Amino acid sequence: MPQRNVMQPSPDPVYILRGSSSPVTSLHFLPILTNTLLSGNQDGKVYVWDLKTRRIQQKINAHLDSVLQVEASPVADSLLTHGRDGYARIWRTGEAAFTCTDQIQVSSKGFCAAKMLPQTGKSYLIVLPGESSSVTVYDSSTKQLVRELVPPSTKLGMCMCMQPVLDSTGSAWGLLVGYESGSLLLWDVVSGKLLSELMLHSDAVMCFKYSSSANRGFSGSVDNQLLEWTISAENENKMSLIDKTVVTNQGFNDIVIRCDNKIVATAGWDSNVRVFSTKKLRPIALLSFHRGSVKALSFSCDGLLAAGSEDRLISVWDVYRS
């Protein structure tokens, strides 16, 4: 497939956040605190950034190894972190500091980040990578194991990335899991039943993002192809590939979809952030600033895009924002 040329020259970031002690590995705009960005670092620290002052508001010694995930929970004033030290931790926000209230030991110390699955009511589920290709599901209230999702095939390899599938009320009924083999599996988290499987990539699924409201997913691997796919509710939740585009350089670290589902952005091994229109998967901007691989991305509720890199910097962009 011929490469689709980027139409716009690279703009400049609106500002740069400096002061991270190590490469940035995870980013998350915190909806419960206005103008707040969380960043997880390779040295296990989580930073709370005040975007008004553009300074670090708080430093959390969250883990003894690289932070794989920092994410706000469905419950107010709470967040989840997951580190390669083998722990997922729940933190409660206070007036002065974040306090760790619970933790769950993770059997796998790979690169797959934990995820939270909102449920009806105040509770939520926590999904963690298990041994081999399995996924473990925990109740957030009791911290007890609810079920284990074990695929029938032993050739999938390790879990690489996960994301919940939401219904119209915002509750998670499904879980998508990308594997080392390049396959994507869709699970029913209530029954534990495997619903469908799609072979996406010839190598590991390095990252993907799925929008439940738009029923569109995007995934990347170690090659230079960005794939688009969907789930058919009318056809027994069968997943199918619908489009793909080719970029200049190989390797994807992260993918995010803006909340209006009009734009998808990718974090590249080549230190660039690429922005695409989701309507036709057309490249519309190449964001070039960082000197190291871009490891993490996050969109704010009002459309700002943050990018964290191996160069220890976080760039914040205002690109095609309404």
UniProtKB/TrEMBL annotation:
Kinase listed as a keyword: no
PANTHER family reported for this sequence: GUANINE NUCLEOTIDE-BINDING PROTEIN SUBUNIT BETA-LIKE PROTEIN 1, TRANSDUCIN BETA-LIKE 3
Superkingdom, natural source: Eukaryota
InterPro entries tied to this protein: WD40/YVTN_repeat-like_dom_sf, WD40_PAC1, WD40_repeat_CS, WD40_repeat_dom_sf, WD40_rpt
Protein name stated in the entry: Uncharacterized protein
Leader sequence segment: none
Membrane spanning residue stretches: none
Organism: Pomacea canaliculata
Residue spans of the WD repeats: 17-59, 60-91, 287-322
Keywords: Repeat, WD repeat
A Pfam family per the record: WD40
Keyword Cytoplasm set for record: no
